[in-house]
Amino acid sequence: MKTLRDLLRDKRFAFGFTVAIILVILSLLSFVSPYDPTRWNVVPRDLSPQWPHILGTNSMGQDVFWLLCFAVRNSLILSLIAALMSRIIAVIVGMVAGYRGGTVDRVLMFFSDSFLVLPLLIIIILFASMARSRLTLTGLGLLLGIFGWAWDARVIRSQVLSLRERDFTYTAILSGSKTGSIIFKEYMPFLIPLIFATLIGNMSWAIGMEVTLAILGVFNLEIPTLGTMLKWATDYQALLLGFWWWILTPVIASILLFISLYLLSVSISEYLDPRMRIQRIGRA
Amino acid sequence: MAGILKIDNLTKIYTLGSIFSRTKITAVDKVSFELNKSEILTLAGESGCGKTTTSKIILGFEEPTSGRMYYRDKEISSIPKSEKKQTLKEIQAVFQNPFSTFNPLRKVDSYFYETLYNFKIASNHENATEIIKEKLTAVGISFSEFSEKYPSEFSGGQLQRISIARALLTNPSVIIADEPVSMVDASLRMSIVNLFKDLKQEFGVSIIYITHDLATAYYVSDRIGIMLRGNLVELGPAEDVLKKPKHPYTQLLRESVPEADPKKKWKKRISLADTEYEEYSRTGCKFAGRCPYVMEKCKKEVPPYFFVDNTTVKCFLYENQGGEDDGLSV
Amino acid sequence: MEVLVETRNLKSYYVLNVFGNIKTVKAVDDVNIRIMKDEIYGIAGESGCGKSTLLKTLFGDVEPPLRVIDGGVFYHDGGKEHNIYEDGGHLTRQFRWKFISYVPQGSMSVLNPVVKVKEVFKDFLDSHLKSESKKEAFDIAVQHLRELGLPDNVLNAYSHQLSGGMRQRVAIALSTVLSPKVIIADEPTTALDVVTQRGVIQLLKDIQEKYKNTIVIVTHDMGVHANIATRVAIMYAGKIVEESSTEKIFGEPQHPYTRYLINSLPSFENREKRTSAPGNPPSLSELPSGCSFHPRCPYRMKRCESEVPLLKDYGDDHSVACWLMEEK
User: Fold this and answer.
1) Structure confidence by residue, pLDDT tens digits, B171-213
2) By mean pLDDT, which of B23-32, C104-113, C189-198 is the weakest?
3) What ranges in C148-193 are assigned the alpha helix state H?
4) CA-CA distances (angstroms) from residue B70 to A67, B4, C288?
5) A151 contacts: CB under 8 Å, gap ≥ 6
6) By CA distance, what is A280's nearest residue in C?
7) What is the pLDDT of residues A248-270, one digit of tens each?
8) In a domain, C104, yes or no
9) Which of B218-222, B257-261, B280-284 has the largest mean confidence?
10) Is residue B276 part of a domain?
11) pLDDT, tens digit, 9 for 90 and up, residues A156-215
């Protein structure tokens, strides 16, 4: 499509997009994995990269490559759940607070600020450690989602506040539009770049939290994610023993994932920025 | 009653600041006037005089602190919510900046169709298009150059005409135009100002024209009201107010307009106020600080309205000349 | 009369790359003007006609996407002529604020909001007069404000405590403290009220009378030009279409566009109907062929559609760029 072609012109997007596609392919490959990631000793242990184990094997007798596929898939799913959940809350809170103003605004912002001030890491560790082995991927996703919206709610609120004072809000009112319609038809196009940028930022945050929790040992280590891979590798002293493939794989994959998410976020939000869109209108 | 719209002692006070330091700004201070059928009434004054706030209150975008408004003899606040939409239909607005009047990411025609459907003026696309074409012709824009375009694809002058067409869709009786040509280029201004004159003549629309440009005000209005820091200080026929200004502030304004004629340069010198804030919070006449004819009385008491020679003036200088006035008789 | 600033065949365009499309905005398109000593030169025209860009180019404030494509801007200082675009900008810095100063549009927002006005003056003077001590710099500022009739307590205030008009006058004071020979003002009164505007224009006039320097003022408000300018140039779509003394421009406009402009201005003389020029001004990135005004001109001839008329002096210091003049 035209949009994709336009976006691809931006080198940052091109790189981020390519890496993202590779990571998605990896996740999809997990469905055809010949090995069950929760089982140990399905292959010979501690083999360095060689065919058929292209990324080697680890000390528990698992193929690193196929493990990576599961890890990427799970990390992506987790971050998507967390990010979507928090977007929904942030958007609703931000819009209502911004448009209504007054007491409603003050109350909502009070809640939002409380969430900001709370030491999130500690609280999440608390929840996670209480639920530890029963905490599924979805569960963690939702948990992160419930805590990750506060900052962005304020961002959205301030955008709505400024939009509310623009003349075209008055024009819409004079055209007989109702409040809900105004918020959706008039404001959404302006909010979408914000939502997108914060979505991807939130995904990064969620993955970061997951890795942290895993390394602290507070997450279910049976589920393969980038964090748990790292945890196992460090626990088993992979670096010390020279099993570089085992530890480098999740590290490099994580780095690539973060970079790609960042680049996508920056280039997409620039593309969606209303000012840029207005410039492109003429040549359509 | 002859008036379509009647404003009675409208007041709007803004409180700024927090619990510790509150300041009150009286943006609109007991303003009263009547708007007649088929007339162009200009509210003129410098920025911060309250003209825009007054218009926002009339349109319902702000709540007045006190005072009443009557539309066709019915008090606006007593109109039940279900009929409010009807009133909205009859009072429309044109704003200063055509580019912020429309959402830059929406096609302009979408506003037109939406208005017609919302107010149930048209029930389907064909009917709506017919009405739209009619209004566009009235403002001198062709349907083909208008259709399926975004605001940024028009020039300022075109877009302002389109904004006027949008205001005409509901066949309003009153249009409030807030500085409608200040952002349009000098060479195109007149055609839009002429448009307002035509609207009055052909469609019988009453217009409240807000501006700080006295020369254009002289050209287009029937009556003019001069505002200073929330007060309406002079109100009367355009010819009288601008050619024979009574209030010292009107005189100052009139003299300060740079005329587009090299033979008419300014001769006198003036000194400027350093801050505007102090004028808002004055007791007594707001102009006392700068008035060349100021008397002791002016600093302590607020002057009432006097009716002299067809004009209402809020100034002690005219105390003995005319009868006292409630500001509404003109 | 001595020439101070001159442009020769000046072309400065904005070159934009919008997602793969190159768009060239011809903001200043082959402009030749000469600005003399001891005059007030007004430039009038619609917004978007290129006047602000012309000022920026005159001051040397050219940054991508704005580029000087052709021609040059020459400062005549003490008998010598310098093309400010010749040596990559070093020359420009030397001249700035001492030979020529600039009051940009919306300059009331130019004052740093977090420091007091006297700090702004001090920073300014420090970077240009190296030897002054703090006290000396302050004294220079006070003296200057007094000369301009501004109260010196302004120096101890923050910019947000001052009214818009006062801020504008402080910005003008700042631009004149080093006694430049040329002051360029871009829409100095646009956001101001009528009464404040009068005060600001009065200040500019006083400065010119006192220092006998030159002021170049750009505004779309013809009333301001009528009141203060000695010569006026009318700009349309990036080109100067007419230039003459203020009296002649208002009294005997020759170019059809100027005629429309002057005739459409409302005045307090009468309320007779006035008309505007038909049509709309062209976009600077898609100019019509030949004379840019021809699509709207009631007198257009075949020639106007293909040939660009040059700005020629038709006697008595009245220059017009119109093929009609050739016929006379």
Assistant:
1) 999 999 998 988 787 778 888 899 999 999 888 899 999 988 8
2) C104-113
3) 164-176
4) 76, 8, 53
5) A116
6) C18
7) 888 898 899 999 988 888 888 77
8) no
9) B218-222
10) yes
11) 898 888 888 888 888 888 888 887 788 777 888 888 878 887 888 888 888 888 888 888
CA–CA dist B141, B129 (Å, integer):
14
Per-residue DSSP letter, B252: H
Residue B264 in tokens: 């008419």
- Locate the chain C residue with the closest alpha carbon to B213: C194
**Residue A2's closest chain C neighbor by CA?**
C19
Q: Indicate if the pLDDT at residue B330 is higher than 50.
A: no
Contact B229, B285 (CB under 8 A): no
CB contact under 8 A, B46 and C266: no
Residue type, B232: L
Across the interface, whether the CB atoms of C246 and B262 are under 8 A apart is answered yes
Q: How many domains does chain B have?
A: 1
Q: What are the tokens at A82?
A: 């967390």
B203 touches A at CB < 8 Å: no
Give me the residues of chain A with pLDDT under 50, please.
Answer: 283-284
User: Mean pLDDT over residues C3-25, rounded?
Assistant: 84
Of B92, B104, B106, the CB nearest to A174: B92
Choose the closest CB to C193 out of B185, B212, B265.
Answer: B212
Chain B residues inside the 8 Å CB shell of A189: 103, 105-106
The pLDDT value recorded for residue B174 is 93
Q: Are B192 and B181 in contact (CB under 8 A)?
A: yes
A281, B111: Cβ pair inside 8 Å?
A: no
Structure tokens at C232: 């006026």
Query: Is C190 found in the same domain as C85?
Result: yes
Tokens (6 digits) for C74: 């020459």
- The reply to whether C166 falls in a domain is yes
- C296 within a domain of the structure (yes/no): no
Q: Mean pLDDT throughout C18-24?
A: 75
Report the alpha-carbon distance of residue B244 to residue B233 in Å, rounded: 14
- Where residue C69 sits, what CATH number does that domain have? 3.40.50.300
Task: Give the position of tokens 């003995």.
Answer: B320
Average pLDDT, whole number, for chain B?
84
Q: Is A165 on the interface with B (CB under 8 A)?
A: no
Question: In terms of residue numbers, what domain contains B290?
Answer: 250-330
Task: Say yes or no: C197 contacts chain B, CB-CB below 8 A.
Answer: yes
Question: Where does chain C have alpha helices with state H?
Answer: 51-59, 90-95, 117-126, 134-147, 164-176, 194-211, 222-228, 246-251, 256-264, 302-306, 323-327
Query: Looking at this predicted complex, what is its ipTM?
Result: 0.81
**What's the confidence (pLDDT) of residue A284?**
38
Percent of chain A with pLDDT over 90: 2
- Chains near C with 3+ CB pairs less than 8 A apart are A, B
Instruction: Write the Ramachandran bin of B284: left for phi over 0, alpha for psi from -120 to 50, otherwise beta.
Output: left
Phi, psi of B322 (to 5 degrees): -115, 180
Based on the fold, state whether residues C35 and C173 are members of the same structural domain.
no
* Residues in Cβ contact with A270 at an 8 Å cutoff, skipping those fewer than 6 apart: A10, A276
> CB atoms < 10 A from the CB of A190, how many?
20
User: Where do the structural domains in chain A lie, given as residue ranges?
Assistant: 2-281
Task: Tell me whether residue B21 is in a domain.
Answer: no
C6 CB neighbour count, 10 Å cutoff: 19
Residues B190, C266: C-beta atoms closer than 8 Å: yes
The CATH number of the domain covering residues in A2-281: 1.10.3720.10
* pLDDT tens column, B102-159: 988 888 998 999 889 888 888 889 989 999 999 999 888 889 888 888 888 888 888 9
How far from A156 is each of A197, A256, B11, C65, C218, CA to CA, in Å? 11, 29, 34, 32, 40
DSSP state, B70?
E
pLDDT at residue B329 in the model: 45
Domains in chain C: how many in total?
A: 2
Asked if residue C310 belongs to a domain, the reply is: no
Token pair recorded at residue C153 = 């307590």
